[in-house]
Specification:
The structure is a homodimer.
Chain A (H helix, E strand, L loop, with lengths): L5 H17 L4 E4 L2 H8 L4 E7 L5 E6 L1 H7 L4 E4 L15 E4 L6 H11 L3 E4 L1 H8 L4 H24 L6 H12 L21 E4 L37 E4 L2 E3 L2 E3 L2 E5 L5 H20 L6 H14 L16 E5 L6 E6 L11 E4 L2 E4 L3 E4 L2 E6 L2 E4 L8 E2 L1
Parallel strand pairs in A: 1-5, 3-4, 5-6, 11-19
Antiparallel strand pairs in A: 1-2, 2-3, 7-8, 8-11, 9-10, 12-13, 12-14, 14-17, 15-16, 17-18
């Protein structure tokens, strides 16, 4: 099992402290496991305290030996009750907490213990740190992408007329898991869950659901209303396979198109336009344009190609993003989207997904996970991009 | 696709209002999707407002048509911004919110909009309502259990020496998903995730992790440190398969033991004791004993059988519960556990899981999902309980 190297964790903590100092924070707590994993290398039941001056301390409820093995931090100590932390936080006046994800009652509990301390939302700092990835993180996302590549290679062997979308989804799980796919795509959100098995065929590609996505799919029930469903896959319909993979917590996200027999022209044409938009936007990504301007540019391209009304959804369901940052969570910075007035930077990793949706008949599009490094973009999910007709 | 009947939803809302009145609440908001699914039948992106007097209103962000189809509520209305709700909450003075799960910032946002209103934690009321299940809910859990039964029947066909735990986990996903298994086991917790693929062989059965469980397993990485791992399954070791299933959001949880070639005597004996504890506790469950007393009774039984030190974990890792309530979440009431001073009631559904753990060599035990109805217990997960030797 691979553990985060000491210098990796130290680098992240050092960058955190720089931003804490700028924000006049003399301490910060990290209670959400995805966040303290980033700063410690472990997701054991614990919480992290980072003082501006001094060593970070990981307080571990369970299991201490495993936390010590997984985390290169010097201070990994067992804790039973929250009150035990009091001696460690003396002199802290202005302290960061993840107020965007931590439940109200838990924050109140900390406020009760810490007393007269100013509580500040540390989530903007976390998001800022995580918007660019280190070479170590990129290597894990490369591995996730390589798992995805192997899974997609197997699809032509198993995709058959008459099987349900979810049957295919289950098979892809059985291919991906032995390669290290962890099965859950984490999202920074109370209510938004992402499923790997986002497989939509024909009309289910045009079904909208609760997620802020061009297409949601039918899903399995009102309790899981997104992704693959019990609909049978038929000949001659577009089959959109958006199968996210997770490795050591890091995700790769990609979409490819398949069909049995043939794919109707409209979806083929839409796919070609999406692919064109995808590469044209990437080629502009490092010109200093804002993400908002890149998004407008992509809309212009879709419009010129005659797909204005299908681009990223139809009618009132059109979404306002073309790409989302990706890493430990599926909704990191950057977003190539309306209102995002920052440019694409070195070290960013994002999933770019131009897609076209046609009411009642289906969807078509492409998605790749892309890293910006050495002033260039590179597709991590280097999977055959031709439409696969079986 | 199956939707919650109108009378089912009306019954739940009526019971909610009774408890709201007792707690002097004149309104309650439900922002967490598992909770508003329970009261509405839909998990579209929405939030629910229930006034003590008057009809509940589901405010839907996306997607309104689907929410109207899935929910039998009369008032399902689209909403764009939180401020839109103001006209609907006039006269509310004391209002419930799920303060145990809703992030601090979101609660603050509501406080800002609602102004001078008293905010009360509604989660104890939610837990109280959900501690017993309706016949409709039990029917969904029966279906989940029937999926599990089919999956377990297939295990002997595919379990082979030399395959990894996670390879088996992936195969079980491929069997379960086409039957309607939804792949995620929801838990009411910030940091606790449950994976279906809880498959532990030999020594991984004795590995402790962050979860409050007798055994955690090795998992796939520090980011997914629970459940099936890359360890190869060998001859002559205990193989514990705890494969939870979810159907329409409702879960069934069960554990059975397997071995290739033979199972060492200690694990066979431990299994027999666990099975004995399981049924003896069930036979006492309806005598009016508290859950705490039932738990102590189970410890006595394990001790008398000579398994005091292995029961529910070893040394400092012994856990203090034998059973957990189950439904839409994996940690509902009741808990047959230390400190739980309530009795088992009609309508409760729980997973009872006596397990023995032996340091470095593995674990053995049984688990069933059990419903209390007509004054009797009934095992929903009626799967062969003999140890399967391949």
């Amino acid at each position: 099992m691979l553990y985060a190297p000491k210098e990796e964790i130290e680098g992240r903590i050092a960058r955190l402290k720089t931003l804490m100092e700028k924000a006049s924070l003399d301490g910060a707590f990290f209670l959400y496991k995805v966040d303290y994993y980033y700063f410690t290398g472990t997701m054991q039941d614990a919480f992290l305290f980072v003082p501006l001056k001094g060593k970070p301390i990981l307080f571990v409820r369970r299991e201490i030996n495993r936390a010590r093995k997984e985390s290169p931090l010097d201070e990994v100590i067992p804790v039973k009750v929250f009150n035990d932390i009091k001696p460690y936080i003396k002199g802290i006046r202005r302290c960061g907490f993840e107020l965007d994800v931590i439940p109200y009652n838990l924050i109140m509990k900390f406020m009760g213990i810490l007393g007269n301390i100013e509580f500040v939302d540390i989530s903007p700092i976390i998001k800022c740190l995580r918007k660019t990835k280190t070479p170590f993180e990129i290597s894990l996302m490369e591995k996730a992408a390589s798992i995805a590549k192997k899974v997609y290679k197997k699809i032509p062997d198993v995709l058959k007329e008459g099987m349900t979308e979810i049957e295919l989804g289950g098979l892809l799980e059985s291919f991906a898991k032995p390669l290290g796919h962890e099965g859950i795509l984490r999202v920074r959100s109370l209510n938004y869950e992402a499923y790997s098995w986002h497989i939509l065929s024909g009309e289910t590609g045009s079904i909208v659901s609760q997620s802020d996505s061009p297409m949601g799919g039918l899903g399995l029930s009102p309790a899981f209303p997104v992704g693959a469903s019990m609909k049978k896959i038929r000949k001659g319909e577009p089959i959109l396979i958006d199968y996210g993979v997770c490795y050591h917590g890091y995700q790769a996200d990609q979409t490819r198109m398949f069909a049995i027999g043939h794919m109707p022209d409209i979806f083929v044409k839409a796919y070609e336009v999406c692919r064109d938009v995808h590469y044209k936007v990437l080629d502009k990504a490092l010109t200093g344009m804002t993400c908002s301007a890149l998004f407008e540019y992509s809309k212009e391209l879709a419009k010129k190609a005659g797909f204005k009304d299908a681009y990223l959804g139809y009618g009132p369901y059109q979404v306002k993003f073309l790409a989302h940052g990706i890493g430990l969570e599926l909704n990191e910075i950057p977003f190539i989207a309306t209102g995002m007035d920052y440019p694409i930077e070195e070290g960013m990793v994002f999933a770019i997904e131009p897609k076209m949706v046609f009411p009642k008949i289906g969807a078509s599009g492409i998605e790749n996970t892309v890293v910006i490094e050495k002033g260039k973009w590179r597709v991590l999910t280097d999977i055959n991009e031709e439409i696969v007709i079986l």
